[in-house]
Design brief:
Blueprint lengths: L3 E10 L2 E10 L8 E9 L2 H9 L14 E9 L9 E5 L14 E4 L5 E2 L6 H22 L12 E4 L5 H12 L3 E6 L5 H7 L3 E4 L15 E6 L3 H10 E9 L13 H5 L3 E4 L7 H14 L2 H6 L1 E4 L1 H12 L6 E4 L4
Parallel strand pairs: 8-9, 8-11, 9-10, 11-12, 12-13, 14-15
Antiparallel strand pairs: 1-2, 3-4, 3-6, 3-15, 4-5, 5-7
Helix pairs in contact: 1-9, 2-3, 2-7
Bound molecules: NADP nicotinamide-adenine-dinucleotide phosphate.
């Protein structure tokens, strides 16, 4: 590799926050033991927060953001990985505490990487990215009601924030698993889109706002919640006995105002999802299931490929809720 390469650099000197595309050196990559030539990264909500002002997440500057990437190994000090292996990274605080994926090269700890499964490629991996990986973790948490807990067949599954990155892939995957997916959205013009992804029924977001009773009519066998707050409170009250709620997000708030009733009267299970800290074993399982459950032709039609310049123009739209679809970042574009 040449010693110099392109990366997005955020900086915060004298209270002036900047983001620029710059040339940096291989010697600037100080962490890790595997050097990767990045093919793709993806744009997540967390990336947009970090690009905006560090999001109170990044503490050291100058810094290379980007919480996920896929690419090819260039050099490895760990014999688990060899030159030209295709690899995927999501989370593990890369792009937050360690230099991340908005770069042509990254150097990371070998314990953070998995090999790209043979039936995927590095572009498909980032079309899913952190959002898709999280959706799959949530979907398998719901499926655990049938398998791990040996419960009855899952039928009705609710997905909140359904047009978002996590929500839309969750709708697709859960419907492929054979469940009746009920998609909650605030976007009235996206009903056809959600139906095309596999939603059976669309519910207005307003129905999950406001106060909830201790227990309401039990409707959901499983829930993928990306919204949190008042919606999650109502979801607990509406989950059927033995149902599983996979909670992964806080797009609508961080506070829940619930009681023990759903848990001790109905045995409702709350399954928290932390994609960033998932074990390597779980990552390998999930990524190997992806090609069976995801319609990549459909996702590709919803995906825009961004250059670094496009990325810097696009992230504010994500923060304002004005971006729709998936965005992958090609550092070589
Ligand atoms: N735990 C993890 O490992 C993990 C991993 C990835 C993401 N996340 C979290 O999951 C959440 C979703 O991520 P994402 O990438 O899918 O974000 P996103 O693309 O911005 O989607 C969020 C969706 O939530 C809905 N929404 C937005 N504001 C809302 C509000 N005030 N009240 C109710 N609904 C609202 C919108 O969908 P509709 O218009 O269709 O309602 C929006 O599209 C975020 O909180 C993110 O931080 C967690």
């Amino acid at each position: 590799m040449s010693e110099k390469f392109k990366a997005v650099i955020i900086d915060n000197q004298n209270d002036k926050f900047t983001r620029e595309i710059k040339e940096i050196n291989k010697t600037d990559l100080k962490d890790g033991n595997v050097l990767v030539k990045i093919d793709y990264s993806s744009l997540n909500y967390k990336d947009a927060l970090i690009l905006n002002n560090g999001g109170k997440i990044v503490r050291k500057f100058p810094f290379v953001p980007g919480i996920d990437f896929s690419g090819k190994v260039v050099e490895s000090e760990d014999n688990k990985f060899k030159k030209d292996d295709n690899v995927i990274l999501t989370g593990f605080r890369v792009g937050e505490a360690y230099f991340g994926g908005f770069s042509q090269y990254a150097k990371v700890d070998s314990n953070f990487l998995i090999k790209t499964p043979k039936d995927l490629d590095n572009q498909k991996a980032m079309m899913l990215g952190t959002a898709g990986f999280t959706s799959l973790l949530c979907a398998f948490a719901v499926k655990a009601k049938e398998e791990l807990l040996m419960g009855e067949k899952v039928k009705d599954v609710l997905v909140t924030g359904a047009t978002g990155g996590v929500g839309s892939i969750a709708v697709m995957v859960l419907s492929k698993m054979g469940y009746d997916v009920h998609a909650v959205t605030g976007k009235k013009d996206k009903n056809d889109y959600l139906k095309d992804l596999g939603a059976k029924n669309i519910i207005d977001r307003k129905e999950f706002e406001g106060e909830s009773k201790l227990l309401e009519k039990g409707i959901w066998d499983g829930v993928v919640d990306t919204v949190g707050g008042a919606a999650l409170t109502k979801i607990f009250a509406q989950t059927k006995p033995g149902g599983i709620v996979a909670a992964c997000g806080n797009a609508g708030g961080i506070k829940i105002n619930t009681t023990v009733m759903p848990f001790i009267i109905r045995g409702v299970k709350l399954w928290g999802i932390d994609s960033s800290g998932s074990s390597i074993r779980r990552r390998e399982f999930i990524w190997n299931e992806a090609s069976k459950l995801v319609d990549f032709t459909k996702i590709k039609s919803l995906t825009k490929e961004l250059s670094f310049n496009d990325l810097l123009e696009t992230y504010p739209k994500l923060l304002k809720g004005e971006y729709f679809g998936r965005a992958i970042v090609n550092p070589n574009k």
